[in-house]
Structures are given as structure tokens and as C-alpha cells.
Amino acid sequence: MASNRSLLILPGDGIGAEAMAQVRRIIAWLEKNRSLSFELDEDLVGGASIDAHGVPVTDAVMDKAFKADAVLLGAVGGPKWDNIDFSIKPERGLLRLRKDLELFANLRPAVCFDALADASSLKRDVVAGLDILIVRELTGGVYFGEPRGITTLPNGQRRGVNTQVYDTDEIRRVVRVAFDIARARPNGKVTSSEKANVMESGILWREEAQWVHDNEYADIPISHMYADNCAMQLVRNPKQFDVIVTDNLFGDVLSDIAAMLTGSLGMLPSASLGAADANGKRRAMYEPVHGSAPDIAGQNLANPIATILSFAMALRYSYDLGADADLVEQAVQDVLAAGFRTGDIMQPGMTRTSTTGMGDAILAALDKRAA
Ligand code: IPM
Ligand code: MG
């Protein structure tokens, strides 16, 4: 039976498939216990797609991605594809999905679960209770700007060029997403980050972010911070932030820093959203922030939590199932509080478990909460 909750699953490479298998178990649980139905489809992306089709994402998969209510992506890349041509590297598949689907707003929450506050490289009191969100612009800036390329100059030197470029609307639309999210958070506020001291694109970014504030969201505080200072402040005192909005490249770097504050990359989900259509529905792709971890792939060692929490974000943002998203997130917290840990978040005195073991524990926690 057709449902209005279609999900395209793209496990990708490395640990993607193992993590995704645990999500499928959770979907089955929701279908059985919460009378929900999802229409699932699965296909290839990244190295897996290169091996099968010679390209990191096929037009057929792009077509499916356009039609699905949401895409859930595992991870792409691995040493096997390190030396192939740049234009068909696994990462290009991911970038095409983001770009062609126009997923311009990338939401990267950095939440420190209390049970994991000691796993952070920072002191417990700096990170305990941390709950911030980075909104990264995802379809513009230096990632896609033209001109780009490597050329050889008349004197024999080679030159690598990339272009940082932003237009008014590209900045305003992502800043609006940041304000909308801040508005829905207790004490929401926005920090906009750029390098207006060095870059014209940064000056424009600052002015447009301020414009959006003054004209549309004057009730929500905004401040501006140079990206290098923002990196430093994230490590010094991360709890001073609430929502950070920034460009594609700074967002890439700042979100990795923010991720590490929480104790493990293995815990962090993300959502990439496009513009809302007439019905308020946004095209969306969800993916863990971590990579494909080829060193532990296929060994039932990977932490599936970031992928599971990415699916929870899909429940919240694509299917309007906030209560079910809460339930999944609470089950994850229960399992952590009960001491279950995969290797990446293992601590003394805790119970080490596997990918499937973590899945078992989360399902048991769901059963308990639903009882
Ligand atoms: C990320 C990753 C990607 C990026 C890579 C895999 C292309 O680092 O999602 O943060 O740079 O955007
Ligand atoms: Mg990155």
C-alpha cells in the first residue's frame, strides 16, 4: 500500500550498511508498534555505485531521490576509491545529491549526552548539557563556485583555483532557516560566522544576516563572529552558543569541531533541507556526520547511533512525527544511561557492545518505553 512516507535508503560504503540495518529494525518496530507505514526503497551511492555503474550516483538514483519524501544516507568513500579520477570520486555522489536536490540548509546538532560527558576531550563541565546546532550553507560557496580547477601556467607552474561566491538570496534563505530553528528553541539566538575582516563574501554575509534579523526576526538576538574566533570559542566555552549559521566551508570545519565536543562523531546526525514547497514540505536528506570508517567496516563494531538519530530527524522534519522522533531519541538515551557502549564511546566500567547489540538494546528500550 502506498503511504505518504517514502524513504530512499542509500547505505553507501564502509559501515553504512551495518548502521542502516539497525535503522531498518527500528522502522519495523515503529510499523508494528506505532501503526505507521513507510514505503522503503534502497539503492547504491558512493564507491558501491562506482563499482556497479562507474559513477558515484546514477541518474536513476537521482530520480528516486527527487521523488522520495526523504533520503537516508549512510556514508561514502574508502581507500579502494582513493586514487580514481576526482570527477567520479565517491564524495562527488554526495555533493551531487546535495546540489541537485538543492539542499541548501545543513543542520548539524551537537548535543552532549550526559552519559558521555566524560568521553569528550574537553572537561566535563565545559560540555555537560551542551545543546547547540550548526546551520551550514550546503549548496554554494567555495564548494561549487566557478571558476575552479587546476591549470598550468606559461612558466610551468601549476595553479589551483576555487572561488568563494555568495549571492543575497543564498545567504538570506539559510539565515532564515537558522532563525526559524532558533525561534523554536528555548532562549534561541543566532551567531552568524564569516571572515568579514578578510573576505568581501564575508562582508556580504554579515550584512545580509543582519538584514534578515532587522527585517524579519528582530525579536531573536543575532551576533556576528569571525570564523577563526568561532572555532576558538567553540573549544573554550561552547555553551555560549545556541544556533550558529555559517557558509559551506566554515560550516564543514566548525561542525567537525562541534562534533568532537560531544564525545564521539559516532553520535551525531544531520539533516539537509531544501526550500519549502506550497504545502510546506521540504526536500530532505539525512545522514550521520561521521564517515565510512573502512577500518572497522563489516566487523559489527560500528556505532549505529548517528544513523539512527538521523532517521529520528527524518521522523521530525520530513514526516511530522515529532513524538516518534522523541521516542527514538529517548530510547538511545536510555541505552547510554544503562551503560551500553560501542568501541568508539567505550569507557571504563561500561558494557561493550556491537553494532547489532546496540540495535538490540535500543529495540528493548523502545519496548520498555512503549509498554
Ligand atoms: C561533510 C564531509 C563532506 C564535506 C565530504 C565527504 C565531501 O566532510 O559532510 O562534512 O566536505 O562536505
Ligand atoms: Mg566535513
Layout of strands and helices, then pairs:
Elements (H helix, E strand, L loop, with lengths): L5 E7 L3 H18 L5 E4 L4 H7 L5 H9 L2 E6 L14 H11 L4 E7 L12 H4 L3 E7 L11 E4 L5 E4 L6 H16 L6 E5 L5 H17 L5 E5 H10 L6 E4 L1 H14 L7 E8 L5 E7 L16 H13 L4 H16 L2 E2 L9 E2 L2 H16 L1
Parallel strand pairs: 1-2, 1-3, 3-12, 5-10, 8-9, 8-10, 13-14
Antiparallel strand pairs: 4-5, 4-11, 6-7, 11-12
The structure holds 3-isopropylmalic acid and magnesium ion.
What's the number of extended β-strand segments?
14
The whole-number mean of residue pLDDT values reads 95
Which structural class do you get from the secondary structure elements? alpha/beta
Largest beta sheet: strand ordering:
2-1-3-12-11-4-5-10-8-9
Q: Which ligands does the model contain, each kind named once?
A: 3-isopropylmalic acid, magnesium ion
Low-confidence stretches: none
The H-and-E topology, N to C, reads as EHEHHEHEHEEEHEHEHEHEEHHEEH
What would you say this structure looks like, in words?
The chain has about 375 residues and is an alpha/beta fold. Helices cover about 40% and strands about 20% of the residues. The chain has 12 helices and 14 strands. It has helices at about 15-35, 45-55, 60-65, 90-100, 125, 170-185, 200-215, 225-235, 250-260, 305-315, 320-335, 355-370, and strands spanning about 5-10, 40, 70-75, 105-110, 130-135, 150, 160, 190-195, 220-225, 245, 270-275, 280-290, 340, 350. Strands 2-1-3-12-11-4-5-10-8-9 form a 10-stranded mixed beta sheet, with helices on both faces. Strands 6-7 form a two-stranded antiparallel sheet. The radius of gyration is 20 Å and the shape is globular. The two termini are about 30 Å apart. Magnesium ion binds near residues 252 and 256.
